[in-house]
Amino acid sequence: MIAAHLPALQIVLPLIAAPLCLLLRPQRLLWPFVVAVGWGTLALAVLLLQHILADGPISYALGGWSAPWGIELRVDVLNAYLILLVALIGAVVLSYAPASAAREVDAERRPYFCAIFLLCLAGLLGIAITGDAFNVFVFMEISSLSAYGLISLGRDRRALMATYNYLILGTIGATFILIGIGLMYAMTGTLNMVDLAMRIKAVADTRTIHVAFAFISVGFTLKMALFPLHIWLPNAYTYAPSAVTAFIAATATKIAAYAFLRFVFTIFGADFAFGTMHLDVLLLPLVLLGIFIASVVAIYQTDLKRLLAYSSVAQIGYIMLGVSLGSATGVTAGIVHLFNHALMKAALFLAAGCIFFRINSLQLADLSGLGKRLPLTSCAFVLAGLGLIGVPFTVGFISKWYLILGALEHGWWPVAALVVISSLLALVYIWRFVEIAYFRPVPEGAEPVAEAPLSMQIPVWLLIALTIGFGMQTSLTAGVARKAAHWLLGAAP
Fold first, then answer.
1. When you count CB atoms within 10 A of the terminal residue's CB, does the N or C end of the chain come out lower?
2. Nearest 5°: phi and psi at 68?
3. What radius of gyration do the chain's Cα atoms show?
């Protein structure tokens, strides 16, 4: 009985809990309540994925109105995979947040922080679960508006300008998506995704549908910060509170990439996207440029969070490189890296937050001798960094292995070589931290510091364990990604 309502419960739990954060008295109950909601949401996500793998997709009709007349929540192997990712990152970051927010968010704002965080979580889960194209836009706006609020809660005044830039560009992206959905509705008379996929075939040759595809593609690539539409991302990640940066970096751009996959493959179809619209011709040069330019820019950054922000732009390029290959192996690579990068980057930003918690700076010049001052945190950062490089026995290696296989299947040896070369750039910017933390002396007169509290260390090391564990056991990540890729491309798993 509960299994039938899992799609609705997945959204309803954080959505109802959000306003309760503002009403909860006494306030000492706030964080235990929020953390419990986060782990409850993860438990629902695990149950949902197990049900999908065992019994197939779930279609849930809101209000008893069957699709396409009513709003449908539809969960299949692809979005169950994304729901698990978002819920996992949400639970881990919420466990990390109490100590971190005490350091970075004013006391009177913390109830608002918790409420907005849960709204953002609900919005991201809603994007993944809904089977209605217009509600993708609605939930995206819920998550985006919440993200703007979370970033603005940073104590650095530059967070306000970062929020403003994100708001302007995020609104432009949302407008493009809405225009594209409106054009599709005008041509088909439906907003249900399954119904759209069937009806759009009859009008696929019209200029209106071609324009709709273009608007939606630009809108989602702006939301996911694909080069060169990434301008909003570096400042947003740099000046947001540490917990917010980790959560948004690991989920928001990944959900935008998922929504792009959903529209391109399940509504328009691979034949239309790659055959008629030649999506690969546009994407491939952009992602390769993005990977290399963002990686080079990351090498020259002086702030650790900004370095990781530009690294994220490059890693988004890897996700879309897999998509641009248009094959089952390529799409598998994109989906699996979407999951893997979220684990690695969340671990890196949380480790950076632990460093900031103790030394009040993330300027690389201030991190000399950090390996001796904060050995556990420094070790965690390096281990997560090895994943970005793609060292064997980490999740990053699995992602790059599939990308190279996908390129070689096409006979694109230069692309495979570029993936390997780009890993060397990741090695350079991770090595910058290693060189400063381990090979430079502790500054004279520097006061001894203790590691961040266990409540911050445990979430970091949990993500490190997953980064290494899923690098050695790939049945969940690569296995589910492969099933999702075959399903997207219309092949048998």
1. N
2. -90, 5
3. 22
Residue 447 CA to residue 481 CA, distance in Å, equals 47
DSSP character for 266? I
The pTM of this model reads 0.90
Name the helix (H) or strand (E) containing 72.
Answer: strand 72-75
Cα 77 vs. chain centroid, distance in angstroms? 18
d(CA 342, CA 85): 8
Which residue stretches of 268-303 are H helix?
270, 279-299
> How confident is the model over 380-400, as pLDDT tens digits?
999 999 988 888 888 888 888
- Inter-residue contact 192 to 267 (CB < 8 Å): no
Cβ–Cβ contacts within 10 Å for residue 459, how many? 26
Q: Would the CA dihedral through 207, 213, 217, 223 be positive or negative?
A: positive
72, β-bridge pairs: 61
For residue 240, give the nearest of 353, 326, 145, 129 by alpha carbon: 353
pLDDT tens profile 253-307: 889 988 998 888 888 887 888 878 788 888 888 888 888 898 899 899 888 899 9
